[in-house]
Amino acid sequence: MALKDEDLQQCYQEDLEYPFHKNITGVPIIAAARSQCNLVIKNMKGFSERLNQFSNLIIPLAWIEVVQESLPLKVQWLVYIQVVILPTFQKILVIFTFLCALLALGIFLSRRRHQTKQAHSASNKTLTFEAENFLKR
Question: Which Pfam families has this protein been placed in (predicted)?
Answer without folding.
Answer: CD36
